[in-house]
Design brief:
By secondary structure, the protein is α/β, with parallel strands linked by helices. The chain folds into 6 domains: 71 residues, OB fold (Dihydrolipoamide Acetyltransferase, E2P) (Beta Barrel), CATH 2.40.50; 72 residues, DNA polymerase, domain 1 (Orthogonal Bundle); 48 residues, no CATH class; 71 residues, Winged helix-like DNA-binding domain superfamily/Winged helix DNA-binding domain (Arc Repressor Mutant, subunit A), CATH 1.10.10; 196 residues, Rossmann fold (3-Layer(aba) Sandwich), CATH 3.40.50.300; 204 residues, Rossmann fold. It is 39% helix and 21% strand. The protein has a 6-stranded parallel β-sheet with strand order 11-10-14-15-9-16, sandwiched between helices. Helix 9 crosses helix 11. It is globular, with a radius of gyration of 28 Å. The N and C termini lie far apart (60 Å).
């Protein structure tokens, strides 16, 4: 193997899975940059690296250096030192301050910081307070750098190296060498495959118990992310064996170890097929069923609205309820747990308003909640009442480590109405049902035909299918909604029919369009032009506030990743930028939070806009509706661009306009309920861009993905 040392200059290509890149390496003794290929993405342009590998001649791209090992090294040139200091590894130093420090100390900067870091105060603009931060960060960075020398060769990024250090401290390398799979369990951003790559490179046997154990846990985790509460043992064994490339018979002992460690729960069945739940999942499912049954079996409040009361509310609201709507209202006062489900325009909002009025006339305390902030605000606006998120209602506390409302400190309410209930997963159901007093009633309002919750379980479907709750299914589209082609097409899609485009006179604007673009690359160009130019000009829409692209997948020409990159470029007007690995954030960017951050009170799926970029402190400030949150190197990885998001991430949200790419590239995700959910997110305008064949494929695929859950059975009280 040959060794090269130089500075990474330009990333020519990076694979979407982060495992392969093509970069230019500037080697001092060579006139032209060297093209290096391999796993380079743990580094970034501007860093000095040593690489080991072999030369090869590619018939298409010419001479390349295929790397087998890469290590980041401290830079020796003034320019390299500047870039190193300005990286997000050293808190308090941005590009401007880095230039001043190097101008003062020259090429000896790093040696001086090592030997006498207090001298940093000699640099103009660095007082005692900032110097203390820089010194502390430098000392920490020295330890992190030693860890990085080990981790970089295994493809671990800067951000993850910092997380590893903060979790394991100076013992990080020792911990990883002993059991690399701890990374997958303990560090956000490092999955099983990364940990397994490190394990294989450090000599862990493919059949080692630690590896088999980790593979089973990872497979259960993947199943949870797909919405399953458990996996049958035969399926878990099959999937894990395929992942690990071992025989299925080798996994039984690893499962026993996990059961002994209480990392999994195994439920036997009469049919002999064991169900394997991740830690805590079985108890949560049992609790959700137990708490709902408790509500159903407890006596409710005395009093029922009569016909005169209902007629009075109808007159006050200016509506005349249909027979099925009246049935839904009556069900709420006759059943302790009720479900109201229906598509857009079927009158769910009118029913909720009516229920609130009647309950308040009886003196009941009514609480309104929804899974997301946007859904809660919309619920409050349409009912004219206070509505909150379920988490806020249950008083989630980051510092106390959970919900503060529970059986011991129940909610002070007589009737809880939860909107967008298709988004509620089993964990959230267990918490909210457990926090209701026994006398209270629960109403779940949602659309059973939309995508199920992102979290595990299928609560709305399971409660309906259990047969133990009062259920009203609304199907009639009411007069005020009949004029909306969006509503009409949503129901057509739900019935498996092609959407229609309304006839229009030249120059007339309508609310539903389809734009044919058979080739994904052509669809990509049209979407970028639509969002950045045509829609703002024709409809007066703010592309950063009013328009949302909802894509079936992340990958491909019309996936989220490439559309986001193109639209960021289209909207960039100059100004400061913050680069984090392969990602870039600019002033004005539309961004989305990707995980629940209870301390900052921002949650998975919340969308905001970058309102400030501080390159010196490596910070962003993002406005989410009426509040602002600061992101730094510790939590910046929680943000992604959100000009385009997946349909799943849009649940509970509503937008003035939706652009929907439909391509056969996304064949695996083309489902009727996905198309239906995307269309129902729009208030005023839908534009479908892509191929008619992709739409037809989605309409044909009406099989809802099976989710492994036993909630319906437990609600019925059936035997295992």
């Amino acid at each position: 193997m040959e060794r090269l040392r130089g500075e990474l200059k330009r990333v020519r290509f990076a694979s979407e899975d982060g495992q392969f890149a093509v970069c230019d390496l500037v080697v001092p003794e060579r006139v032209m940059p060297v093209t290096i290929v391999g796993n380079i993405l743990a580094t970034r342009p501007g860093e000095t690296v040593e690489v080991w590998g072999r030369w090869r001649d590619d018939p298409r791209f010419g001479r390349q250096f295929a790397i087998e090992r890469l290590e980041a090294v401290l830079p020796s040139t003034r320019q390299g030192v500047e870039r190193y200091l300005a990286s997000d590894l050293i808190e308090g130093i941005g590009p401007t301050l880095a230039r001043r420090i190097v101008a003062h100390f020259g090429e000896a900067t790093l040696e001086i910081l090592d030997a006498a870091p207090h001298r940093v105060q000699e640099v103009e603009g660095i007082g005692k307070k900032r110097a203390a931060r820089i010194i502390a960060s430098w000392e920490e960075g020295r330890l992190i750098h030693k860890i990085m020398v080990f981790l970089r060769s295994h493809g671990v990024s800067n951000a993850n190296a910092v997380r590893i250090y903060r979790k394991f401290g100076a013992q990080a390398v020792e911990v990883i060498q002993q059991n690399p799979y701890e990374l997958a369990e303990a560090i956000f951003g490092i999955g099983f495959k990364s940990a397994d790559r490190i394990a294989m490179q450090t000599g862990v046997e493919p059949t080692a118990l630690a590896r088999l154990r980790a593979g089973l846990l990872h497979t259960l985790g993947e199943a949870s992310s797909e919405g399953h509460m458990y996996l049958p043992w035969t399926l878990l064994r099959e999937r894990a064996a395929e992942l690990l490339e071992v025989g299925e018979h080798m996994l039984a002992d690893a499962l026993e170890v996990l059961r002994h460690e209480e990392r999994v729960s195994v439920e036997a069945t009469l049919a002999g097929e064991a169900r394997v739940y991740a830690a805590g999942a079985l108890a949560v499912e049992e609790r959700a069923a137990r708490q709902l049954r408790r509500l159903m079996q407890s006596p409710g409040l005395v009093g029922r609205p009569d016909a005169d009361a209902l007629a009075g509310v109808e007159a006050r609201l200016g509506v005349a309820l249909a027979a099925l709507q009246r049935q839904a209202v009556r069900s709420v006062f006759e059943q302790k747990v009720s479900v109201i489900t229906g598509g857009p325009g079927t009158g769910k909002t009118t029913i909720v308003q009516t229920i609130c009025e009647l309950a308040e006339q009886l003196g009941w305390r009514v609480t309104l909640a929804a899974p997301t902030g946007r859904a809660a605000r919309r619920l409050g606006e349409t009912t004219g009442r206070v509505a909150t998120t379920v988490h806020r209602m249950l008083e989630y506390s980051f510092h106390a480590g959970g919900f503060q409302r529970d059986e011991e400190r129940p909610l002070e309410t007589d009737l809880l109405i939860v909107d967008e209930a298709s988004m509620v997963d089993t964990y959230l159901l267990a918490a909210l049902a457990g926090a209701l007093p026994a006398s209270a009633s629960l109403v779940l309002v949602g659309d059973i035909d939309q995508l199920p919750s992102v979290g595990p379980g299928q609560v709305l479907r399971d409660v309906i299918e259990s047969g133990v709750a009062g259920v009203t299914r609304l199907s009639e589209i009411f007069r005020q909604a009949e004029a909306s082609t969006i509503v009409i097409n949503a129901h057509r899609i739900n019935a498996g029919q092609m959407p229609v485009v309304p006839a229009r006179a030249p120059g007339e604007l309508v609310d539903f369009y389809t734009i044919n673009a058979e080739e994904p690359a052509q669809a990509h160009e049209r979407i970028v032009e639509l969002v950045s130019q045509r829609m703002p000009r024709a409809f007066g829409l703010d592309p950063l506030q009013d328009v949302q692209i909802l894509a079936p997948m992340h990958r491909g020409d019309v996936g989220c990743a490439r559309l986001n990159a193109a639209l960021q470029e289209a909207f960039y007007k100059g100004g400061p930028q913050l680069v984090r690995g392969q990602r870039r954030f600019c002033l004005g960017d539309r961004v989305m939070q990707t995980r629940n951050n209870y301390e900052a009170e921002v949650f998975n799926g919340d969308v905001g806009q970058v309102v400030a970029v501080d390159t010196e402190e490596s910070q962003l400030r993002v406005r989410f509706d009426e509040r602002e949150v600061t992101y730094d190197r510790a939590n910046l990885d929680e943000l992604v661009l959100a000009y385009a998001i997946t349909v799943h991430k849009s649940q509970g949200s509503e937008y003035r306009a939706v652009v929907l790419p439909m391509s056969t590239q996304h064949y695996v995700m083309l489902q009727r309920n996905l198309l239906y959910t995307a269309v129902t997110r729009a208030r005023e305008l839908v534009v479908v861009v892509g191929s008619e064949e992709a739409v037809r494929l989605a309409l044909k695929n009406d099989r809802a993905s099976e989710r492994y859950t036993q909630l319906a059975r437990r609600l019925r009280g059936d035997t295992v």
